[in-house]
Specification:
This protein is α/β, with parallel strands linked by helices. It contains nine helices and twelve strands. Strands 1, 5, 6, 7, 8, 9, 10, 11 and 12 form a nine-stranded mixed beta sheet that branches.
Length: 270
Amino acid sequence: MKVPKAGAVATVIVLAATASGCGGDAPKEPISIGIKFDQPGIGMRETDGTFTGFDVDVATYIAKELGYKANEIEFKQVYSSDRELLIQYNEVKFVAASYTINEKRREKVEFAGPYFVAHQDLLVRADDTSIAKAEDLNTKRLCSVSGSTSAENIRKNLAPKASVLELGGYSECLVALQDNLVDAMTTDNSILAGYSARKNNAGKFKLVGLNLSNENYGIGLKKGDNDLQRKINLALTKMVSDGSWEAAVKKNFGPANYKYEPAPQVTTGN
């Protein structure tokens, strides 16, 4: 039998190691995370293709704690009406998209967190003084997003006679408000503050300043995935303790002079 030369043996060993993945440099499958693409300050896909917002920073931090680098993250657009579906059909690993924790959603998905507390408010045109409280909406036209808790809260609890227009995204509601097709738009104050603070919206809109609900944002994930829930909760706790949470809040909401709540205690999974 012909014995291979030392160089050939070395080559065979290297090739075998590479094929078996022992080299440690095998490309990692990217992690898919659902975020909003049209919420300034929360989750926004900018014109240059980059992503900005508090939820983006939270998602990136969680992914890092799960072992993923920034370039190993694939952000996928989610809408308020399809977040559960994307989780259930494994289109995303988790969702960070101003996703309020409630019992109805808990029937379909698991939550980690909460990691942020917002309050439902109203955004009106800057020169409008006719809306000072929720009841004023009973004679007004209101815009919200399909599948959001905000529209349901107005319709059932706060202003049942309001004319409610439900559109696919908050950007569409903002256009309707600007074009005088509606008198107000409603969602969480964090989202409204993000729109109001955009440079091209300066001086056009104002928040009424109402706390119409408490919205505890959670990270949505597959029902029954308690291991991932535990890991995300640990990441969120660490993000608060090392100062990254506070830094992300100030970076994304500071320009809007938004008065935010302190970081909530993580309670899911306990």
